[in-house]
Amino acid sequence: MRRILAILLENEPGSLSRIVGLFSQRAYNIESLTVAPTADASISRITIATNGDDKVLEQIVKQVNKLIDVIKITDLTERSHIEREILLIKVLAMNDKTRTEVKRITDIFRAGIVDVGKQVYTIQITGDADKLNAFVTALSHETEIIESARSGSVGLARGEKALRV
């Protein structure tokens, strides 16, 4: 089962490598990882998407919690949450028919063309993984995908719940 873990930790050299090292040592797979400082520059927030059964995830949470730099960890998938990724994708747009189709698909998915070249469009889209995957599939039926980059998941609990120090 796919899980999204949100972690607050001290923004110190080596903090991130200790988290990643723990996953590596235990042979836990990281599907995606994002990290950035919070409003308090001394604290970073890490969002990790991973897979595993309940027992494996329970072990992951316990092991991460034992790390000295970790302030707090929560499994966002245990409750209602909002999850988003950003995708930048570069596609061929060599003729009017292809350009029209790419623009149509971009509009349907509420994406945006952020750069236009002579034969290439670069498109930006945000959403959950399913939306981004569907967008890539739709584009791939109409044109060649040259390059893409995804941010990985970030998430917040819905409502009043918050991951705070």
Shape: elongated
- Oligomeric status: single chain
CATH fold node name of the largest domain? Alpha-Beta Plaits
CATH architectural type of the largest domain: 2-Layer Sandwich
Task: Write a structural description.
One of its GO terms (molecular function) is acetolactate synthase regulator activity. Strands 5, 6, 7, 8 and 9 form a 5-stranded antiparallel sheet that branches. This protein has a 4-stranded antiparallel sheet with strand order 2-3-1-4, with helices on one face. The relative contact order is 0.21. It is elongated, with a radius of gyration of 19 Å. The protein is built from 4 helices and 9 strands, in the order E-H-E-E-H-E-E-H-E-E-H-E-E. Helix content is 30%, strand content 41%. The chain folds into 2 domains: 77 residues, Alpha-Beta Plaits (2-Layer Sandwich), CATH 3.30.70; 75 residues, Alpha-Beta Plaits (2-Layer Sandwich), CATH 3.30.70.
